[in-house]
Amino acid sequence: MEHITLQPRFKDSPHFKNFWEKGNGKQLIELSGAEVSFDNFEKFAHYYDHIDNAGDEVVKEVYFTKKFHEASKEIEHYIRNGVTEQDNVPESIKKLFFQTQRKPEWLDKELLKNGAELCMRSGLDALISLRDYCLIGGYDYAYLNKPLIATEALKKGAVKRLSETLDFWVNATRYDALEIHAKGYEFAIKTRLIHSYARLSIKKHYKNWDSENWGEPINSWDMMATYIGFSLVFLHSLLKLGNTFTVQEEQGVFHLWKYVGYLLGIPEALLSDNKKQATEYFYLWTSVQPPSDQDSVLLAHSLLNESLENPILKFQFQRKNLRYLHICCTWFLLDDDACKRLQIPDVSNKNGFPKTKRLFNTIYNTIVSREARIKAGNKRHLKVLEDYLNVTKGSNFH
């Protein structure tokens, strides 16, 4: 079936206008100096039907012709040892790995280092931002979440899903993590193939996929929006929590995620270099997304209740308190409209913890050296990741 031309169909809807005229979107425009309009809409709209064909071909040739563990072992061999023209491997493997092994001309190692250092020195604020703004805020975009629903992510459980996201983010944001054959590079390739595997499975098994409204499953435009969450939205959240960063660190975070996006097969035309570009790109994408639906609410509450299900904290009162703190941060970081749509519980004294955190950060960032903050933040990230991996190892935690 031929697709009708995509339009910015929600540009006059209250959720869109309130976000960009009164809420976090307005703050992003002020922060970035973005000049938002729909002049370039057609330049980006076709990416709603664009997918990573290179990744899909690898999945068809490798994963769909072997047992899953055998296919995974084969891919790990290519990741860790590289692929050359002389290797007797499928053409799809050569195409994908020749792209990921070729460093783009724009790649700047110093900027990658700056980006990694800001991610590390942000410590627990980075994890709060990823969870209580980037991840749960993404659930407010109803169509973006449809692949999660189609692949039954809710059955997998929020603890496992959060563990996987944390594992990817931590391993992609350390020193030299994205060097070819390094851990972050490995995670990017594996994540790319997981996306392709999920997309092909959805197209084969999920008969109710509404491509007219939702675009292709895990399409390139949705991927762009997801990775803007790791850069633009992430930085906005750090600022809200009282953190500061240099121009070089800010540019570094955008550069780091631009390169991750490149490794993931996102078209380079969608990879933003700075906050101005990212805000302008994000503006266009949000115009095709409706607000939260029932699936969004289910995903949000699954994430909120993760604190109660997760056995990292031994006692129930500790888990309830952690859930309360995450709810407070969600209200503080997200727009009230989004929180109401996602049916986030309205708790008492919800600004107390985030405002205290902001005050603490102002003092901490003044009296503790940058190097010490990088070291301490890295240590905290690795400890939290270790705890999550310990409770989810064997992938049978639901």
TrEMBL record:
Signal peptide: none annotated. Residues 154-347 form the ER-bound oxygenase mpaB/mpaB'/Rubber oxygenase catalytic domain. InterPro entries: Lcp-like (IPR037473), MPAB/Lcp_cat_dom (IPR018713). One of its GO terms (molecular function) is oxidoreductase activity. Pfam families: MPAB_Lcp_cat. It comes from the Bacteria. Transmembrane segments: none annotated. PANTHER family: ER-BOUND OXYGENASE MPAB_MPAB'_RUBBER OXYGENASE CATALYTIC DOMAIN-CONTAINING PROTEIN, SECRETED PROTEIN-RELATED. This is ER-bound oxygenase mpaB/mpaB'/Rubber oxygenase catalytic domain-containing protein. It comes from Chryseobacterium defluvii.
